[in-house]
Amino acid sequence: MASNASALGKDATPRTAPVPPATPARAGASHAWLRAATADLHAQVDGLFPDGIDSAQTYRRYLLGMHRFTADCEVATGHGPRASSWLAADLAALGVPPMPTRRPRRALLDDARRLGWEYVLAGSSLGARVLLRAVARLGLDDMRGAAFLAHHAAGEDWSRLQPRLAALDEGDARRRASVASGARDAFAHVRACFARSFDALSTDTP
After folding, report:
1. CB 98 within 8 A of CB 69
2. CA distances (Å), 107 to each of 1, 45, 73, in order?
3. pLDDT beyond 90 at 103
4. For helices 83-93 and 56-77, what crossing angle results, to 10°?
5. Per-residue pLDDT band at 14 (split at 50, 70, 90)
6. CB atoms within 10 A of CB 12
7. pTM (2 d.p.)
8. Is 98 in contact with 148 (CB distance < 8 Å)?
């Protein structure tokens, strides 16, 4: 989200082999490369929320789109429902029915593409820390309407992703391309989910 905060961070996949401990330099370099590879799509997502979470209606749109994305992301990455369950609880607390998926999804077979999807969801925890403060001004908290942001902001998904980013070999162009492709697909899906949530909750909806 542009100036105030990003819905998916300012600036997860079963392991098939151990990865070396991350060093700040290696993880930072991989993050910078992947961030650059997805910058255009990330900006498009942020552009949907130019004023951040500035109203209850905007927050409902955010929850609705984010729930659809996380549910699909958990399937794509082969993880059980966790973030989507928090978001489902938030939607229920605010009386908003979830959006159905538009097509059945399966777990991605390519672990590099899964890493790209996990990068997008884990990275959103960075933005969650700022968004949590915004929704607090709306009178919401982890017990009512903001469970996802509270859990996501306090979680360790992003730090756990760093060793895997650091393990990306700069000489392995094919794997890096697959990671970037997965991340771009995930960002495109986020954008589509938010577009649907805007349509479902028009500006006239109280």
Report:
1. no
2. 28, 24, 9
3. no
4. 150
5. very low
6. 21
7. 0.87
8. no
Q: Is 52 within 8 Å of 134 (Cβ atoms)?
A: yes
Tokens 């970037």 appear where? 180
The full 3-state SS of 147-206, as one line of letters, equals HHHHHHHHCCHHHHHHHHHHCCCCCCHHHHHHHHHHHHHHHHHHHHHHHHHHHHCCCCCC
Domains contained in the chain, CATH given: 24-200 (1.20.910.10)
**DSSP conformation letters of 26-88:** HHHHHHHHHHHHTHHHHHHHHHT-TT-S-SHHHHHHHHHHHHHHHHHHHHHHTPPSSHHHHHH
Cα–Cα distances in angstroms (integers) from residue 15 to residues 30, 34, 77, 78, 111, in the given order = 18, 19, 11, 11, 8
Q: Answer for the pair 118, 104: CB distance below 8 angstroms, yes or no.
A: no
Q: Measure the CA–CA gap between 169 and 165, rounded to whole angstroms.
A: 9
* C-alpha span between 20 and 166 (Å, rounded): 8
* Residue listed under structure tokens 């992003």: 158
Residues 6+ apart with CB under 8 A from 108: 76, 77, 78, 114, 117, 182
Which residue type does 97 have? P
Return the pLDDT at 124.
95
AA identity, residue 39:
A
